[in-house]
Amino acid sequence: MLAGKKILLAVSGSIAAYKAALIVRLLMKEQAEVRVIMTESAKKFVTPTTLSTLSKQPVYTSFYKNNSEEWHNHVALGLWADVLIIAPASAHTLSKMAQGLCDNFLLSVFLSARCPVYFAPAMDLDMLAHPATQKNIDLLVSRGNHLIASDVGELASGLNGKGRMAAPETIINILEAHFKIGTFHNKRVLITSGPTYEALDSVRFIGNHSSGKMGYALATLFAEQGAQVVFISGPVKDYPKHTDIKVIKVTSADEMLDVCIQQYVEIDFAVFTAAVADYKPSEAFDKKHKKDGNPIKITLIENPDIAHELGKLKTEKQIHVGFALETHNEEASAKAKIKRKNLDLIVLNSLQDIGVGFGQDTNKVTIYDRFEKQFPFELKDKKEVAQDILKIMESYA
């Protein structure tokens, strides 16, 4: 998939710069043409000689070739590349990219490049979480650059959290997906995600602990494979960031259904990962209801079943995938939902399994199709679960 592709790898100053050697090695193994740019600070973590040896090409570290002031043409290099990937992208480099500053060779190529640009942040968790860094990332994505999200794990500081640069193998997979014209390329995908909150009064609600991580992983993977994603989510901490993901934030089940119906036109795939509240209060207080020593009686009524309602609109050309989180009679419940909601596939996970449930980074699923064929999987990271789901979907598309 990458054979003959012109890949420009830009390495900025981060401890993760040592991973650039493996990225180059993997790209060369795929027979890509590789050129490498390094900032001065990146040279403190990995030498230009190492990356030059692996890429079989000189490494660009400055504007000038030698003391005779022959210069490297940053414009020509930016035009040469089929894709520019900045990995690792330090907080400092991200800030300069977002502001359009141009004080080194890497940034001059970035501003000159006409090709797609991917960037893989790498820094400590608090630096990544800082509002300034997040604003810079949002700004870069809004301009059409592609974020390769950081991983969670042990960091150079000794802390554990989000900030590790994505694994070189992940980066290669993303580049392969970029050049692949596959099942989901230019397809429209609707994904529901997160919880819904059903108001009791102006400040209280009925809800659940859904983190939206599964929906996040699926939306990101679909977008990386060229799909146009409409991501409709209840309140969660993190929303996916990608130029091909349209995020629509909602609160209640009624709001989610209304938006789903509005966005359903010309949808090719619909994936219902949202943990929609089954019930809502029949009436909500318009103000905060204060204690007065008396009990409150709340009548709960059923919420609309979003997958069921969209199932009524489904045509033979569309694929619907549901999710079921069960505590008992798992298989029977999942199979019943396939028929009731007009689904093609349903992804079942049980709260009886360890490592499964709201807020977890892992999931263990069994996928059933409408013909009752089943595909069981072991406990995996939700990113890997998303890959399994898309592979199954491809065979039904």
Offer a few descriptive terms.
single chain, 397 residues, alpha/beta, Rossmann fold, 2 domains, eight-stranded mixed sheet, six-stranded parallel sheet, 22 strands, 31% helix, 23% strand, elongated
Give a structural overview.
By secondary structure, the protein is α/β, with parallel strands linked by helices. It has two domains: 6-179, Rossmann fold, CATH 3.40.50; 188-286 and 294-394, CoaB-like (Rossmann fold, 3-Layer(aba) Sandwich). Helices cover 31% and strands 23% of the residues. Helix 9 (213-224) packs across helix 13 (382-394). The protein is elongated and about 85 Å long. 41% of the residues are buried. The model has no long low-confidence stretch (mean pLDDT 92).
How would you summarize the topology of this molecule?
Layout: E1 6-11, H1 20-29, E2 33-38, H2 48-55, E3 59-60, H3 74-80, E4 83-89, H4 91-99, H5 105-112, E5 117-121, H6 125-129, H7 131-142, E6 146-147, E7 151-154, E8 160-164, H8 168-179, E9 188-193, E10 198-199, E11 205-206, H9 213-224, E12 228-233, E13 245-249, H10 253-263, E14 269-272, E15 279-281, E16 300-302, H11 306-311, E17 319-326, H12 330-340, E18 345-350, E19 362-363, E20 366-369, E21 374-376, E22 380-381, H13 382-394
Parallel strand pairs: 1-2, 1-4, 2-3, 4-5, 5-6, 9-12, 9-14, 12-13, 14-17, 17-18
Antiparallel strand pairs: 7-8, 10-11, 15-16, 18-20, 19-22, 20-21
Helix pairs in contact: 1-2, 1-8, 3-5, 4-7, 9-13
